Amino acid sequence: MARKTANDDPLAPVTLAVGQEDLLLDRAVQQVVKAARAADEDTDVRDLSSDQLQPGTLAELTSPSLFAERKVVVVRNSQDLSADSIKDVKGYLGSPAEEITLVLLHAGGAKGKGLLDAARKAGAREVACPKMTKPADRLSFVRGEFRAVGRSATPEACQALVDAIGSDLRELASACSQLTADIEGTIDEAIVARYYTGRAEASSFTVADRAVEGRAAEALEALRWAMSTGVAPVMITSALAQGVRAIGKLASAPRGARPGDLARDLGMPPWKIDRVRQQMRGWSADGVATALLAVAAADAGVKGGGDDPEYALEKAVVAIARAARSR
To answer: What percent of the chain has pLDDT over 70?
Structure first.
């Protein structure tokens, strides 16, 4: 979720939303507008792109009104403002108008850094809206969505939702909203699977999970569905490799180690330690070695070493499923 500075009053004279995650930027704006309209339902909201804020425009929008109306002025992509407009904004930061909240959306890079520094120096309330490129970030986002509305979802359910939906934060937020609206009580993995059958089954990680569990038929079914819905073959080989390596890592870990220690040492979340423990029951050391060779062959096949990537993946899935029953 968006991170905020210590000044968490959405009606602060200036709010600076920094980052490139569109959903979080929009939410930062919505929070300010909601607070302003709670204070005055007739609040005037002006939402401007950088090219709409011409020199003199800010002074016009923030000049005292005869009716002392509350106003929210939003400037998007403020890093793209012209030099003269940046000069206007910097001047305004030194003496913001009463009853007016200025919201600056800034990408956070080197471009327009002078404006960014000036807003921070002026004590602007800051909301960080970074692009969520890592799966762990998206997982934290999903947990935060459920937590924000006071709902409980199991770690497995959160992971299944990320696997099913992918990297689109708006779709993840929409899915969380749908589940919390429709489901009472704790949201678990079975509920996510029921709602997102097809998408969840097409996940490369679902293919890998079924394969390392020795469930060849289900793994092949998931693989064919994944391929038919456009999942990249390299994503599937990557998931297969991760699944087999996780088995090997946990199998070689000290016996009797606590889950928390294993999670730290192996670089896995605690819930995944529990899942891998269940998956590794039929595995032997030779089985892990055989499966890794199968994954390597499939990887070569999907990256140009073979004529039929789908056949290469099917062959790997069957080999991994057999290796899962090698003990």
So the answer is: 91
CA-to-CA distance for 29 and 74, rounded, in angstroms?
A: 7
For 60, other C-beta atoms within 10 Å of its C-beta total: 8
- Give, in order, the Cα–Cα distances in Å from 39 to each of 34, 133, 281: 9, 36, 60
The CATH label, of 1.10.10.10, 1.20.272.10, 1.20.200.10, 3.10.20.340, for the domain at 204-323 is 1.20.272.10
pLDDT higher for 198 or 100?
A: 100
Instruction: With a cut of 50, say whether residue 129 has pLDDT above it.
Output: yes
Give the fold, CATH level 3, of 3-129.
Rossmann fold (3.40.50)
Q: Answer whether residue 1 shows pLDDT above 50.
A: no
C-alpha–C-alpha distance, residues 95 and 83, integer Å: 19
Q: Is residue 146 within 8 Å of residue 152, measured between CB atoms?
A: yes
Where would I find the beta strands (DSSP E) of 80-220? 100-106, 125-129
CA pair distance 106, 111, nearest whole angstrom? 9
Residue 160 has pLDDT above 90, yes or no: no
pTM of the complete model: 0.61
CATH of domain 135-195: 1.10.8.60
